[in-house]
Amino acid sequence: MDDELNALRRSRMRWNTPLSEPHAQLLLDRMALGDGHLVDLGCGWGELLLRALGRALGLRGTGVDTDRTGLARGRAAAASRGLAVEFTEADAATWDVPADRAFCVGSAHVFGSAKAALAALARVVRPTGRLLYGDGFWAASPTAAAREIFGPDLLTLPDLLDVVDGAGWRVLHLSTADQLEWDDFESTSRAAWAEWLVAHPADPRAPEVRRWLDRRWREYVRDYRGVLGFTYLVLGR
Ligand SMILES: C[S@@+](CC[C@H](N)C(=O)[O-])C[C@H]1O[C@@H](n2cnc3c(N)ncnc32)[C@H](O)[C@@H]1O
């Protein structure tokens, strides 16, 4: 798809994860933000990072991602809110700058697995620090189609917590995305293209956009709605 449609695609999303505003506020409370340095690895456009910096004014922030569209959106949002955040184009998997707080939300795949992510994050977050780790898990027995979409490595929540424990982290907070957060996430991830399609039914790109939307809705409703879960863990050591 071209740059115009790519830039449009996620424009209706607040952040790229199933998370309501009150749930986000709860997670930021549990991160006990203060002074120091917060790094968001796989930040996308860094909306949660910006919210964190907006409430903890002594905090310095760095967002790390490889997606230039997301980074540009993050920089524009930071500038419009007067927040001094650095958005860096880099591979999060090799990031090694120590931080007092870290976010890794929906980005564990960047490290290869939850186990590898939690081990790498233990090297980045200072021993007195905290990590907000958001990851998918099987909330119900997956269908073959769901396994096909999300791969063989996704864990159940108990197995994920064993991996957390094995990497030396202690759980300070655990919550999971509810159905409304999921439905809103899936809807907003499609909304901009769905609206574009209504406005441009005869555009040469319309058939491809329609096929993409139809497939994504089919997958969500038939294959993984209520099957894929998402957990938010605030971790310390
Ligand atoms: C599901 S999104 C989560 C974004 C963000 N954490 C949020 O909650 O809105 C996963 C992000 O990982 C980023 N990503 C993929 N590979 C990466 C890499 N090697 N280094 C850094 N970021 C990467 C993608 O560009 C994407 O923004």
From TrEMBL:
<dbReference type="InterPro" id="IPR041698">
    <property type="entry name" value="Methyltransf_25"/>
</dbReference>
<protein>
    <submittedName>
        <fullName>SAM-dependent methyltransferase</fullName>
    </submittedName>
</protein>
<keyword id="KW-0489">Methyltransferase</keyword>
<dbReference type="GO" id="GO:0008168">
    <property type="term" value="F:methyltransferase activity"/>
</dbReference>
<dbReference type="GO" id="GO:0032259">
    <property type="term" value="P:methylation"/>
</dbReference>
<dbReference type="InterPro" id="IPR029063">
    <property type="entry name" value="SAM-dependent_MTases_sf"/>
</dbReference>
<dbReference type="Pfam" id="PF13649">
    <property type="entry name" value="Methyltransf_25"/>
</dbReference>
<feature type="domain" description="Methyltransferase">
    <location>
        <begin position="39"/>
        <end position="129"/>
    </location>
</feature>
<keyword id="KW-0808">Transferase</keyword>
